[in-house]
Amino acid sequence: MQHISDQLLAALMDDMRDTAQAEILPRFRAITADAIRAKTAPDDIVTDADIGAEKMLSEKLAARLPGIVIVGEEAVSEDQTILERIGSSDLVAIIDPVDGTWNFAHGVPLFGSILAIVANGQTIAGLIHYPVTGNFIVARPGQGAWHVASDGQQTRLSVAAPTPIDEMHGFVPLHMYATDLQAELAPRLLRFSRTTTWRCSAFEYRMLATGAMSFCFNAGLSPWDHAAGTLIHTEAGGYSALVTGETYVPTMTHGHLLSAPDAESWEAIRAGLLD
User: Fold this and answer.
1) The predicted structure's pLDDT at residue 21
2) Quick check: 173 and 165 in contact, CB under 8 A?
3) What is the pLDDT of residues 16-58, one digit of tens each?
4) How far is CA 113 from the centre of its chain?
């Protein structure tokens, strides 16, 4: 499969809505202490909503697309070798069941669910669902990026217009970088109008694709954070690449990804952050 039809895209959105209604929203603001567990660090957590949503959506995708390989964030946290399936399988679904789990667990409605469909190592559909508001941002290669409202109305998305970097707002998760790089980056952030982090790739890609923010400099390359969002950003007119210049693909797991309004802005932002 190299193409996602309109009908299949709509069905995938239905699956994500159903999963959110059953597994995510009932637990929002109803989290108990025994439903939150740490993974790699005290602020890297997993909840029953993450686990339940990944299980339910995985089952729906397996039934809808027989033979599809599922790569879920929570499954990978238990078995890192699952990541290898992205590059070795014809058709893969990459799932982040609750992106922004820290926000979710603390009653902050900045979280979403992310799904990327990858064929032979390339993303052919990116969907990000926002359960609290019921809307989506979605993209397929060559077909633009779209906001899909809860009533089905669609609006085409566009990234921010290029500006000088001292007028740019961007996302930089400073705390996620190695200590020595933090020290180098911190004073350089003053070259931009404003930088922040929302602890949620789902909403950060939304802000990029709608033009509300200009750039994002990511500290890691977890595929469930970026496979869908990078396609959506690109289809909204943006430009993304690793700071080494390589084009991002979902099989990459190491490096720093920079997303910008266009290639010229990308060069200016990279210089502002690293030179």
Assistant:
1) 97
2) no
3) 999 999 999 998 966 554 455 444 444 445 688 999 999 999 9
4) 8
- From the options 3.40.50.300, 3.40.190.80, 3.90.930.12, 3.40.190.10, give the CATH code of 165-274: 3.40.190.80
Tokens (6 digits) for 275: 């030179």
Tell me how far apart the 2 most distant CA atoms of the chain are, in Å.
51
Beta carbons of 224 and 95 less than 8 angstroms apart: yes
At residue 38, the pLDDT reads 47
Query: Looking at residues 116-144, what average pLDDT do you find?
Result: 97
Q: Around Cβ 39, how many Cβ atoms within 10 Å?
A: 15
Q: Residue 31: what pLDDT?
A: 58
The CA distance from 60 to 12, in Å, is: 9
Tell me the C-alpha distance between 50 and 23, whole Å.
Answer: 8
Reported as type and span, the H/E element at residue 193 is none
Q: Which two tokens stand for residue 49?
A: 């909503």
Mean pLDDT confidence for 233-237: 98
* Of the candidates 262, 273, 70, the residue with the CA atom closest to the CA atom of residue 191: 273
Query: Residue 264, CB half-sphere, CA atoms under 13 Å: how many?
Result: 4
Q: What is the mean pLDDT of residues 154-175?
A: 98
pTM of the model: 0.94
Q: Compute how many other C-beta atoms are within 10 angstroms of the C-beta atom of residue 175.
A: 10
What angle do helix axes 48-64 and 6-19 make, rounded to 10 degrees?
150
**Phi and psi angles of residue 243, each rounded to the nearest 5 degrees, phi first:** -65, -15
Q: What sign for the dihedral angle of Cα 102, 215, 226, 118?
A: positive
**Superfamily assignment of 6-156 in CATH?**
Fructose-1,6-Bisphosphatase, subunit A, domain 1 (3.30.540.10)
Domain boundaries of the chain, sorted by first residue: 6-156, 165-274
* One-letter amino acid for residue 264 of the chain: E
Task: Report helix, strand or coil for 152.
Answer: coil
